[in-house]
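dumping the sequnces here before i forget
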Amino acid sequence: MKRKRLINIGEIPMRRKIVFIIIAILFTVFLSYLILKTIDIESEERPKRIIFIPKLIDNTNDFWVDLIAGTELAAKEYDVDLTIVAPNREDDYEGQNNFIDWAIREKPDAIVLVPADYTISLPMVKKIKEQGIKLVLVDSNVAEKVEDVLIATDNFKAGREMGRYITSYIEEDTQILMVSHVKTASTAIERQAGVRAGLGKQEDKIVDVVYCDSDFLKAYNLTKEFIQNNPSINMVIGLNEYSSAGAFKAIKEVDKDRRINAFGFDSSTAQIKFLEGNYCKGLMIQKPFNMGYLGIEKAVKLLDGQELPEYIDSGFQLITQDNMYTKENQKLLFPFER
Amino acid sequence: MLVSFSILVIIALSIFMLISLSYTKDTVLDNSIEYTTKLVEQVNYQIESYVDYMENITALVTNYDNVNDYLFQTDLDAEEFNNLRAEILTHFNLIVKAREDIYNIAIVSDNNRYLINDGLDKLNTNVNVDNLDWYKEAISNPGQPILSSSHVQNLVEDDYKWVITLCINMRNPYTNEASGIFFIDLNYDAIIDLCEANSMSEKGYIFILDKKGDIIYHPQQQLLYSGLKEERIKEVLENETGYFITNEENSKLYTISVSDKTGWTTVGVEEVSELMKNSSETKIIYFIVTIILLIAVVIITAVVSYEISSPIKILKDSMELVQKGQLEIANIDDIPDNEIGSLSKSFNIMVYEIRNLMDRIVYEQKEKRKSELRALQSQINPHFLYNTLDSIIWMAEAKKTEEVVIMTSALSKLLRQGISNENEELTILQEVSYINSYLTIQQMRYNDILEYVIDFDKDLYSEKILKLTIQPIVENAIYHGIKYKGSKCLLQVIGRSVGETIVIKVIDNGVGMSKDRFDKIFDSHKVNYKASGIGVYNVQRRLQLHYGNKYGLDIKSRPNEGTTVTITIPKKRDNGLK
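..and the predicted 3d for all of it:
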């Protein structure tokens, strides 16, 4: 009996030892797990795949160059796998729809889109959402609100401010030609409405509106033709980069005695030269770089599950000859390129 | 012990870990600050050298006679003019070719003579030079090179590039008036190279501010210009210690160095977590070392405590055995050769000594009892002897020769047996013959009242019995039972074999005993010499000592009816306790 108890007593610490070693091992495993967890917290995340479809890719157009530069920089900042596809012409709705269709089939995490047309693009835009792909619209929108986030210039407000600015140049005999871009594009519709609202009572000074379909040459020809046919025109407003630049060029050629006051939207080098040369009295500039950058940034944040406002105003600024080289405005007018 | 010791170790290790980790963190941070400070100062110095170099180029051009002639000589003919122009252009070309970071190089005089780069670029007619900040500053600081902040260079036609302009005002040697400038537009290639080559980590960067806090260069310049990002310019300008750490989720270390020469501020930015990358490696090593130590300590503790506690357990159990008196099995085997081992050895020696002592005590007690017994045996009750001798005399006087012979020979036998036998034990045959002699004498003395019968199973004769076991009982029966009866009594001494025991009954039909007396016999611790030489209690004690508590006397008595004393002893036990 006694001897047997002796053996039992000998076994107890042995069992306790095993238990303790097991506890120690578990503790070790747990600790290592914690350590690995804290270290590997930044473990490789799959880069988000985003497809960006602007209205067009045109390396001669500063607006689109800046916008795309913005998306590319944001893609670099946020480690996004970014693909950019677009037609060659702004009014190639079908071409853009084909690209959207292709993008949907690619099943990216998000699509950032500048819809070419207010109504024609709508069914395709809807299809993006139906496939459960996050959608960020940039610059322009479509007839129905389907996008997750819209990042754009408040075109109506920008137009209205332009309209108000213009009134200070309006005299009794003022006759205005408005050179718009694409009749059915949301930006064109809203800016025109804005300018009209800004002009207020002077709205009836608008003699005609022509549409250049975002074609520099067409804008140039239309303006030239119109002025030649209507020599009494003494004010021209271009509603985007193509319309303004084309119109300004026509004015510089036709208006030798410099009666015509010109105004425009956007800020290509050509437009800036007209502003420097005082052909143009004011440029309403958007922030295409910001739009592009925010488009990608917000898409990333949507994918990260953040709540975002439905509309983000990318802002605008009226630039005149006097203030174009102020510290702040030169930053807006001229992109810093490395 | 294992648990508490391990907890102690874990606590100690954790404290060690925490202290060393925080110490490491502080040290790493201090080292990083020192390192980045040096780095940023280095960048600052390199930028100064860079500007120095550019100023040298400036000096080279402005001291070039051809340049002055070209700009200010009024009476040049077309050929001379073109020659000068060609020479200057070659000069420009040499400079621009060697330096990719020079975007524009130009001389402009206020008499509308100018030369830009390859001579094909034109001045932007829409821009009035006099309105340009850097130009104004150069004019008001004659002979001193002026370094502009980052700005858009709009002086060259059709080109709007962000540059840094280094310009110097040029004196017309003919009028001695400041009437021209030389400028170099620097693109950011060199500065980017300088800043990026010296960036410490992937997420670290360096940026440069001018005197007013406007950005000269920043890797995210466009984002800052667009208002999409902000930089802590205000904090940098207000800082006096040369560095600060931002208080945000992903805190950053800003290291600042201001150049006396250019007035520019070079700022290095580094994410603190990035600086701690090495320390997180250190952290892992600390953790691993701690865990290995922990495991080692636990195992060692387990082994050591097992080594210590298990022999202690054995020792304790042995001690318990000793407590219970089981000395024979209390010895400890397999003693490890350490402190506990020597303790166990001492314990074993102690137990051995105790056992020896106890054996000695037992032996001595036995000897004492023997000598006591011998003393008792040698002292045959003198009264009995007198009375017997008296009886012999009395019988001799009455000429009862035969009876005298019987009695005398019985007495002689009795005495011989009493004296002669040295052994503690006798055979039952010897004891029976002793009692027979004794009863012969007593029967002759009390022949009118005493009858006796001795009846033993023959096979018991060879069995052993303690000396003087039956005789004192018989004596008691006679003196206390029969003597006072007054009438004839029968004394029976019967020995029977019952299983493994021998049962001997001494039965008398004398006066018997009351309860009081009965108790007295057993309570008495003294040898009742007067009554019988050896008391009943003494017999009982001796029997139990010799044979164990299971054996001994059992007395049943009733007043006026008699007494039966039963002696029970084991068979064939010649050696007492084992």
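The domain at 423-570 of chain B is CATH 3.30.565.10 (Heat Shock Protein 90).
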